[in-house]
Amino acid sequence: MKLYIAVGTAVLLVMAIFIIVFVAYYQQKQIRQQLILKEWQEKYRKGLLAATLQAQEHERRRIAQDLHDEIGTMLSVTKLSLNQLGRTVEHNDPGSTVLVQKTRSLLDETIANVRRISRDLVPTTLERFGLVSALEELAEKASNGEVHVELSCSDKMPTLLPQLDLTLFRIAQELINNAIKHANAENIIIDLHCQPNGVLLSVIDDGRGFDLDEILKDKKRGLGLRNIESRLNVIDGHVTFDVEEGRGSRIHIQVKNLKPEVEVEVEAV
């Protein structure tokens, strides 16, 4: 009888152990499947974001090309026609000289604005000379009598992938526009420096600041900041907002996936 009890107990114990092991294995398998599913969902989300951003850049390039090739050409032809008309009008009616000159000045300003918009849509300096040169040009264009923008960067900058160059440039562009238009900043610093595992881009201003939570709640006002986060999600980057109302903002962008085999020497700015 004792033998039967011992054997039965052993069998029950083995069955219990088997059930426990099976349940544990099943739970681990479920967890692995959930992790794989989340990983695929994250990849799909990043792929969708990347495709959206790529489509935006293609549309920017198309519009810039249309402005340059069609609108720009038409304006140039119009200017030539105006010059010919102006010579005739000035000869027959000298009193119209001022009106012709004013019209020519407005046309020149329109041509300059079309060229500026075209360059803003497609940063040719970025494609030809790299991120540092593009940021230098951006700082120069944004500076005027009321706003001063300067660039500070490492003496040697690693060559990033083109996608990272474009992402960092677009983010800097967005942050500078925000600082000027919404924060009324007078001084802005673009800080670009190497880190052991990546690059840190900081945009620092002396504007009036903002409440991050309130801005993100507003779909229209927070669109630019959400776009920044979306761009960084695609490249596994990170943004830190050191902001509050009543003081200047410090926004830090960190990216890690570099192309470290090539370094570009730049002059200290």
UniProtKB/TrEMBL annotation:
<dbReference type="InterPro" id="IPR050482">
    <property type="entry name" value="Sensor_HK_TwoCompSys"/>
</dbReference>
<keyword id="KW-0472">Membrane</keyword>
<dbReference type="InterPro" id="IPR011712">
    <property type="entry name" value="Sig_transdc_His_kin_sub3_dim/P"/>
</dbReference>
<keyword id="KW-0547">Nucleotide-binding</keyword>
<dbReference type="GO" id="GO:0016020">
    <property type="term" value="C:membrane"/>
</dbReference>
<dbReference type="GO" id="GO:0000155">
    <property type="term" value="F:phosphorelay sensor kinase activity"/>
</dbReference>
<feature type="domain" description="Histidine kinase">
    <location>
        <begin position="62"/>
        <end position="259"/>
    </location>
</feature>
<dbReference type="Pfam" id="PF02518">
    <property type="entry name" value="HATPase_c"/>
</dbReference>
<dbReference type="GO" id="GO:0005524">
    <property type="term" value="F:ATP binding"/>
</dbReference>
<keyword id="KW-1133">Transmembrane helix</keyword>
<keyword id="KW-0597">Phosphoprotein</keyword>
<keyword id="KW-0067">ATP-binding</keyword>
<keyword id="KW-0902">Two-component regulatory system</keyword>
<protein>
    <recommendedName>
        <fullName>histidine kinase</fullName>
        <ecNumber>2.7.13.3</ecNumber>
    </recommendedName>
</protein>
<dbReference type="InterPro" id="IPR003594">
    <property type="entry name" value="HATPase_dom"/>
</dbReference>
<dbReference type="InterPro" id="IPR005467">
    <property type="entry name" value="His_kinase_dom"/>
</dbReference>
<dbReference type="Pfam" id="PF07730">
    <property type="entry name" value="HisKA_3"/>
</dbReference>
<keyword id="KW-0812">Transmembrane</keyword>
<feature type="transmembrane region" description="Helical">
    <location>
        <begin position="6"/>
        <end position="26"/>
    </location>
</feature>
<dbReference type="GO" id="GO:0046983">
    <property type="term" value="F:protein dimerization activity"/>
</dbReference>
<dbReference type="InterPro" id="IPR036890">
    <property type="entry name" value="HATPase_C_sf"/>
</dbReference>
<keyword id="KW-0808">Transferase</keyword>
<keyword id="KW-0418">Kinase</keyword>
